[in-house]
Amino acid sequence: MDRARLAEFLRSRREALQPEDVGLPRGQRRRTGGLRREEVAVLSDMSIDYYNRLEQKRGPHPSEQMLAALARGLRLSLEERDHLFQLGGYAVPQRGRRADHVNPGMMRIMDGLDGAAAQVVSHVGETLRQTRLAVALLGDDSVQHAAYTRDGSGSQAAELAEALLARSPEFAGLWRGHPVSGPYCAPKRLLHPQVGLLELHCQMLVDPDQSQSLVVYTATPGSESYDRLELLSVVGAATSR
After folding, report:
1. How many CA atoms lie within 13 A of 78 on its CB side?
2. Longest dimension (CA), the chain
3. Which CATH superfamily is domain 3-87 in?
4. Partners of 198 in the beta sheet?
5. pLDDT tens digit string along 178-190?
C-alpha cells in the first residue's frame, strides 16, 4: 500500500469533482471548488473520520470493498478504479468477471433520479445500484439463462444462479421456465402492499462497454398508477429513514 500516493490521489479526485456532478447543491457558503471530505464519505457509505484519516495518510489499510465504495463515491472511471486498487496494494479487479463498477455517466444520471424508480443492473440482472423508490417497489435480483449460457460454469452468472436456486423456491420456479429476455423492457403490473396496483412503463439505457443497463419505471401522468407511485415515493422515503 502506497499510503502517501493513495491520499494524494483521493484528494485530487475529490477536488476535481463538483457538487453538481453528484446531485448536491453548491450552496452560497462554499468558498472553493470540489467536494468536501464529509460529502465524499457520505457518497461512499463510510464514516467521515475514516475518510479523513485516509486523506491524512494515517488511516487503516482499506479493504477491497472500501476501495470499491470510494471508486463509486468519487465517480471514478474503470482506469481510475484500477489505479486506486493498485495504490491500495491490491491486484486490479478482473473486468471480464466483475461488472459491479457503475461508470461515472450512469452514476450522474442516477443522481438526478432520486425521486424515480430506477436501478442499474448488470448483464446477469443483478442490481448494482438503485434509488430509494426502487428499493420500496422492486423485488429480488434475478439472473438470465442467456447470461448463464454465454458465460458458462464458474462465471458470475453461474455463481449467482446457483446461490439463488439453493435459497429461493420462487426463483427456482422461474428458472425452470428458462427466461431469456432481450433489450425490450416490457410494461409491469405490480401489486404493492401499501399503495395497491401499479401499471408501469419501463425505459432502458444500455451501457455497452460494461454490459450494464439503467432501468427506469414510470407511470402515465394523470393515471391512478401515477398518483400511487407519487404516494409510494413519500412512503418509501419515510420508511427508509
Report:
1. 13
2. 59
3. lambda repressor-like DNA-binding domains (1.10.260.40)
4. 190
5. 554 555 567 788 8
Q: What residues have CB less than 8 Å from 223, skipping those under 6 apart? A: 199
Q: Going along 9-114, which residue ranges are E strands?
A: none
For residue 99 the three cell numbers come to 461488472
| CB-based contact 190:200 (threshold 8 Å) | yes
pTM for the predicted model, two decimal places: 0.54
Buried b (16+ CB within 10 A) or exposed e, 1-15: eebeebbebbbebbe
CA distance 83 to 92: 8
Q: What digits encode the pLDDT tens for the residues 199-224?
A: 888 888 887 666 688 888 888 999 99
Supply the CATH classification number for the domain 104-239. Answer: 3.30.450
CA–CA dist 105, 80 (Å, integer): 14
